Amino acid sequence: DVQMTQSPSSLSASVGDRVTITCRASQSISNYLNWYQQKPGQAPKLLIYAASSFASVVPSRFSGSGSGTDFTLSISSLQPEDIATYYCQQTYNTPRTTFGQGTKLEIK
Amino acid sequence: EVQLVESGGGVVRPGGSLRLSCAASGFTFDDYGISWFRQPPGKGLEWISTIYLNGGRTSYADSVKGRFTISRDNGKNSLYLQMNSLRADDTALYYCAREFWFRQLFPASDIWGQGTMVTVSS
Questions:
Q1: Residues A46 and A55: beta-carbon distance below 8 Å
Q2: pLDDT single digits (tens) A70-86
Q3: Which of A12, B28, B34, B43 is 20 to 30 A off residue B101, Cα-Cα?
């Protein structure tokens, strides 16, 4: 199976900061990479598919990039409502999909 | 409203069985593959099984293969997960999710239920 490694595991930042989360695949997955946001007590919500495309109405401060093995999720100006755990997911060998371990984002 | 609602979770002893259900509404159920995921308390997400349109094709994670069975009843807009030989490490919140193929190329789970908790404990 393709292993996904996210960094950092947790991140504390101030409102208005630029935040970047990285995700690395154990082999090339082209751009078969999704990002999910999971707020406390809620189900995951799809933010980005195909590494950089928005799945639905997602604030423009979010962006995704990358291809091959290295990917990033960025928030240009952190807002209080962005507090959540973020997961990357590879779908290169769907349905045997795998997730990163998650990045917990907190407000400083 | 497009919605998935899981049910059937509970407390079960090691070695026991449980059947989870996932009721779909607001979309044409038999147009989509549906997956089960799970999340142990305080931990990350794990894919465990997917069933495609008419149920003819299924896939399982190695951690549940041979113990869990996924099925669907398109007439009832429902998905099921029969879980046998349960172990302590199966304790988790179980989610069902719709599989959507963006641009017919890029799969993702675009609709999730709220989950049902399964606790395996003696």
A1: yes
A2: 999 999 999 999 999 99
A3: B43
